[in-house]
Amino acid sequence: MVVTPPMRSSKMRGLLLHPLTLYVIFTILILLKLMLLHHNLHAYNITMGLLDKVIAVGSLLLLSFWVWWLPRKGMIAALSILHLFLTALIYADMVYYRYFQDFLTVPVLLQARQVDALGDSIATLIYARDFWFFADLLIVLPFAVVMLLGRRYRSVEKNGMYTSSYNESYGGYPSTSFTSLTTRKKGLRRRLIAGFTALVLGLGLGAGPIYYYSKTWAKGLFDNNWWNVSMYNVTGLLAFHGYDVYSYVKDNIGSGPEADAADIKQVKAYFADRQQSNAAQHNQALFGKYKDSNVIIVQGEAFMNFMIGQSIGGQEITPHFNELMNESQYYSHFYHQTGQGRTSDADFGANISLHPLPVGSAFVRYADHAYDSLPSILKDQGYSTNVFHAYESGFWNRYTMYQNMKYDKFYSKNDFVEDDPLGWSLSDVSFFRQSIEKMSSEIKEPFYSFLITLSSHHPYSSIPKDKQQLDVGEFQGTMFGNYLQSVHYVDAALGGMVEDLKNRGLWENTIFMFYGDHDSSIKDKDQYEKFLKRPLNDLDMAQIMNEVPLLVHLPDGAEAGTLEKPSGQLDITPSVLHLLGLSDESYYHMGNNLYDGSERLVALRNGTFTDGKVFYIPSDDYIYANGTCYDLSTHDKTDINACKSGFETASKRLHVSDTLITYDLIRQFREENVENVAMKP
Predict the structure, then answer these.
(1) Predicted model pTM
(2) Which of 525, 522, 605 is nearest to 568 (CA)?
(3) pLDDT digits over 627-642, tens only?
(4) Do 420 and 429 form a contact (C-beta atoms < 8 A)?
(5) CA-CA distance, 331 to 600, in Å (whole number)?
């Protein structure tokens, strides 16, 4: 039979609108977006090979197999919705990764207020070239609308599958509007078979390789996920999110998770050993020397260590901090130990002395769990405990968490007069001034005050020109230059705060600490090399991005000097308790005591660690052998085995901390102790 042009056109149209064609197009477009995401990650030692693409296709089949069971219009609508949803999810992951070097998780999404409040920061993470990520929607969406709402086309079931036909009223070929019951049953059966085939293929292509990985080079990853990027390297993005949802539901639905008996035993053994090692600290010179002193701790937003003592154009960047160093202890290798929770993680580590979580913020996920927080311990000793932050009280779930931490009062945005607005809220100059006024007039001594600054927040563009006092030279107009300008402003605010404390007679009876919460999220090595005027290797960049300053001023100015041993945010609470003469033995803390003279190992959330002799940088796949070990005496790479012992210690600490927090074991252990005491004759 000769096929006339209208018939050929009709067949082509039918082929284009065939469910299998639509399904294949959907799969290819989303796969391309996943590949584009991966291209934009620039993750070290992470590739997207053929098998990774197979996993991605399998994941897509598992997500969408059910659309085969819908009528044609239902299938088109479902595929369109899935297409929009996955496009939004993949792009959100890409933007989030640009800032956090991590992926979105359910706990992070539950912290949506954090994302809303980033405002200008998010705007700087969206690039013009991202248009291509959405280009396909210019065709996909109009096509879906025409097919769903247009009268020109309708579906006809032929041989059990849906095809397209012209409506007679539009001059097309007439098509039968009735099919036999048998034909309809065949169609339903064929659609069911197609759906189940997609499901089986999805399991084979998606779950099969992941299972193989988990039993070979990625063994143990699902039992101990240290970092989401390493999980992504095994599962791909879609399966990563599926596993994240599964983990969240498992941990939060029903009676809650139960810790493995072996893990509980390990946690108990760890803290029993720690208690014995801390017993001798009572006899050390500084133990209790500053008993009943006030304690003020300031957490500086994105205040990094690399610019301490540095100048630009002959002008010191942190002149007031530099001056304070002459009468204070300056820890030159002090590390932030934060994860996804960023500022809240720094707060958590400093005041609770446990490692932040690998996923989400403990402030949000486990605000109702039991902790041995610094404010709660000092409150039991008769201290007034207060926290100051001139922003919304619900941000990072602070209001709820601070109640659990036993602060007497949380001075948030509504407690301050906004007489000098700047950036996110109040300028740090006004924030410090008003906070000290409250300390001197409203709070009874001895007190513990914890302050969180804001003026140096990403994207560092909030300092108005009339308050810019630093000439950043060649960095003018760049985010790096804006960052230096912001830090210089905060440094001036810090200098004013110290003067105010002295004028009010509080300085002489106060243990004062200032530390940075996390890095600036500016990762351009060229900028740092230009600023520091020297080439930088991976070790240099790791230290720059992870080191923040710690300044400790004791009431009599004693022990001043630069201390080069490694230390971290978890060390703050044990060290404060030591100075006040309060034993740390009975508390569930994991930080080091900075004053006991012992060797220290500092573990970071992503598996990086240092003991002052070696520095280990993990690979993104978190396979130990793929990481890099540096000898700090030479700053050169050394044999990977030199870091083996420290890696095992750091990994153990992270696992113990995660277990303790996730399963609320502090509460469980305390209840067991009460029961044991009650059972004694």
Answers:
(1) 0.75
(2) 605
(3) 999 999 999 999 999 9
(4) yes
(5) 13
Task: Report whether pLDDT(466) > 50.
Answer: yes
Q: Which residues does 22 contact at the CB level (< 8 Å), separation at least 6?
A: 75, 76, 79
pLDDT band at residue 111 under the 50/70/90 scheme:
low
**pLDDT at residue 275 in the model:** 87
What percent of the chain is predicted at pLDDT more than 90? 70
> What amino acid is encoded at 162 in this protein?
Y
* DSSP per-residue string spanning 278-292: HGGGGGSTTTTTTTT
Identify any residues that bridge with 552 across adjacent strands, giving them in sequence order: 329, 513
Separation of alpha carbons 213 and 232, rounded Å: 12
Contacts of 220 by beta carbon, 8 Å cutoff, 6+ apart = none
Q: Does position 153 have pLDDT exceeding 60, yes or no? A: no
Burial class (CB in 10 A: 0-12, 13-18, 19+), 372: buried
**Dist CA 259 CA 268 (whole Å):** 13
* Terminal C-alpha separation, the chain: 102
Res. 643 pLDDT band, cuts 50 70 90: very high
Question: How many angstroms separate the CA atoms of 299 and 304, rounded?
Answer: 11
Most confident stretch, 60-74, 84-98, 537-551, 593-607: 537-551
Task: Tell me the C-alpha distance between 258 and 261, whole Å.
Answer: 9
Which residues are CB-neighbours of 341 under 8 A, at least 6 positions away? 348, 356, 357, 360, 361, 362, 363, 364, 396
Token pair of 194 as six digits: 């197609």
pLDDT tens for 235-282 read: 999 999 999 898 788 777 765 668 899 999 999 999 999 988 777 677
- Between CA 376 and CA 359 the distance in angstroms is 26
In this prediction, residue 167 carries a pLDDT of 40
Nearest alpha-carbon partner for 429 in 458, 462, 461, 453: 453
What does the alpha-carbon distance between residue 382 and residue 398 come to, in Å, rounded to a whole number?
Answer: 23
Please give the single-letter amino acid code of residue 525.
K
Q: Give CA–CA dist 457/517, Å, rounded.
A: 11
- H or E segment to which residue 63 belongs: helix 50-64
Evaluate whether 577 touches 583 at the Cβ level (below 8 Å).
Answer: yes
Does the bond joining 459 to the residue before it have cis omega, within 30 degrees of 0? yes
pLDDT score for 260: 93
**Cα 45 to Cα 106: distance, rounded to the nearest angstrom:** 26
Closest to 341 (Cα-Cα) out of 651, 620, 665, 110: 110
**Among 105, 606, 656, CA closest to 337:** 606
What the block records as the tokens of 448 is 């513990």
Cis-peptide, bond into residue 446, ω within 30° of zero: yes
Query: How much of the chain is in helix, strand and coil states, percent to nearest 5?
Result: 55, 10, 35
Give the per-residue pLDDT at 180.
62
Residue 213: alpha-carbon gap to chain centroid: 25
| Radius of gyration from C-alpha coordinates of the chain | 30
Q: Residue 500 contacts by C-beta under 8 Å, 6 or more apart in sequence? A: 432, 433, 436
Per-residue burial over 116-141, b = 16 or more CB atoms within 10 Å of its CB, e = otherwise: eebeebbebbeeeeeeebeebeeebe
Does 169 have pLDDT greater than 60? Answer: no
Neighbouring-strand partners of residue 553: 512
Q: What is the DSSP string of 352-371?
A: H-SPPPSSS-HHHHSTTS--
> Other CB atoms closer than 10 Å to residue 451's CB: what's the count?
23
Of 429, 428, 387, the C-alpha closest to 407 is 387
Res 349: pLDDT: 98
User: pLDDT value at position 160?
Assistant: 42
Residues 413, 436 contacting (CB under 8 angstroms): no
Pairwise CA distance, residues 595 & 354, whole Å: 19
Among candidate residues 216, 601, 627, 582, the one with its CA nearest the CA of residue 376: 582
